[in-house]
Amino acid sequence: MTQPPRPGDPIGFETHDHRACIEDTVRAVAARCAQDGLQFTPVRRRVLEILLARHRAIGAYEILDTLRDEGLGSQPPVAYRALEFLTKHGFAHRIEGLNAFAACTDPGHDHDAAFLICTGCGAVAEAPVAPARAALAQTAEAAGFTIARTVLEAEGLCPHCSPGAAP
């Protein structure tokens, strides 16, 4: 069985057993929900699976289209409520610059994240933010500013889309 990613593990663009990645993450989220007394409903589970399956940021309406096709709901609140639950509990992240969502690679642990967003294929990788946060904290402290939350997003090309990448 594949272990869920841990801080310091390679970030998101490498080839891996995608099915195991999805299964392991859904299992970890289900266990965390059971432990914390949270309702991991079939719609919430399916929205998480959709996010995990794509490995890119996905808008709420794209998720809603999939749910509608599968008979799990056709009104926007269905997708938005599931996404609100997943982000509130640390199982997914909102990618602010894309107005979209991505599954968390370290679900259920309170942490800030940095996102590497490929402008070629749309893939999104979650990266540790600690070094950048430390530098930002120094700047904020000098300005008398207290940081409540840090979201870093970087756009560029993943290894598969970079010039000279193997076809």
What does this structure look like?
It is a single chain. The protein is an alpha+beta fold and 167 residues long. The protein has a single domain (18-156), classed as Arc Repressor Mutant, subunit A. It is built from five helices and five strands. It has helices at residues 18-36, 42-54, 60-69, 76-88, 130-142; strands at 92-95, 100-103, 113-118, 124-127, 151-156. A three-stranded mixed sheet has the order 4-3-5, with no helix packed on it. The chain has a two-stranded antiparallel sheet with strand order 1-2. Strand 3 and strand 4 form a beta hairpin. Helix 1 (18-36) packs antiparallel against helix 2 (42-54), helix 2 (42-54) packs across helix 4 and helix 3 (60-69) crosses helix 4 (76-88). It is globular and about 50 Å long. The two termini are 30 Å apart. Mean pLDDT is 83; it is low at 1-11.
